[in-house]
Write a structure and sequence with these properties.
single chain; mainly alpha; about 85% helix; flat
Length: about 270
């Protein structure tokens, strides 16, 4: 027993050292990238007017912070992204449940879902602007157009892939369709739902930025378009980094949610 305990402690120490090494390498690589970028700009190897530099982006970030524009633009894009993310996930999961529930409905709508999934969603942007009007609503609709179909297809495929032997066993024991859904299909697709959330983080940001490219008066997409129009590449590159940081934070929130749900539900896989 003591030997097993020592082995366990050694394994835990090894895992901790590995996590520390990974974190240090991540930070080191990022620092090396920015350091090389700055040195190349100062040495004239690259044109800082075209590709900017970390010091110029820092000055731009401080300027946005002091003027209050940083919080306004980030807040607008974040609100639109979270709204599209939640709506896409909820409506997509609900639609997938409806398709699983009715095989007839699934067979009728399947070709339409395939076509809509293959359709370039950015082509619908002007349509949404005409239908809904220029504003956050059309941008959220753009986000839904990009994330909704993917969520439906992913969740529906996960539902259909549920172990048929377990479904057959529950039916043998007298379970109805609703009981199979809540007791087996949904719990068995916990991982599928989490994966859909992770995918939707990126898709939601894509939808919001594309929508803001087309019509917006504020937001990160607006800053990118404005900066490119007036040739302020410092503003463009700073906004791109802000976008990457916001998307990474939102993705991390999904990971925290996954960990919390696994602990609460007792999910081990």
């Amino acid at each position: 027993m003591s030997e097993l305990s020592l082995q366990r402690q050694a394994w835990l120490r090894k895992q901790q050292r590995t996590r520390t090494a990974v974190l240090l390498w991540r930070v080191g690589l990022l620092a090396a990238l920015f350091a090389g970028w700055e040195l190349a700009a100062r040495a004239g190897a690259i044109d800082p007017f075209i590709v900017s530099s970390p010091s110029r982006m820092l000055d731009t970030f401080v300027s946005l912070w002091r003027s209050g524009d940083l919080f306004r633009h980030v807040g607008v894009s974040l609100m639109e992204t979270v709204a599209g993310f939640l709506l896409g996930t909820i409506l997509g999961t609900a639609a997938a449940i409806a398709l699983w529930w009715s095989d007839f409905l699934s067979r009728v709508l399947d070709p339409y879902l395939v076509v809509l999934n293959a359709l370039p969603k950015t082509a619908l942007g002007p349509v949404f602007i005409v239908w809904i009007g220029a504003g956050p609503s059309s941008i959220i609709a753009m986000t839904l157009a990009i994330s909704l179909i993917v969520t439906i297809l992913e969740m529906h495929n996960g539902f259909l892939a549920t172990d048929p032997e377990k479904v057959r066993l529950m039916r043998t024991l007298g379970a109805n369709r609703r009981q199979i859904l809540w007791k087996l299909v949904l719990p068995a697709n916990f991982t599928t739902l989490i994966n859909a959330l992770k995918v939707n983080v990126g898709l939601s940001w894509v939808g919001v930025i594309m929508g803001e490219f087309l019509v917006s008066k504020a937001g990160l997409g607006y800053l990118i378009v404005y900066g490119s129009q007036v040739f302020q590449m410092d503003l463009v590159m700073t906004t791109v980094l802000l976008l990457a940081a916001a998307a990474a934070l939102m993705y991390q929130c999904v990971l925290w949610l996954e960990k919390a749900l696994k602990k609460h539900l007792g999910v081990t896989a």
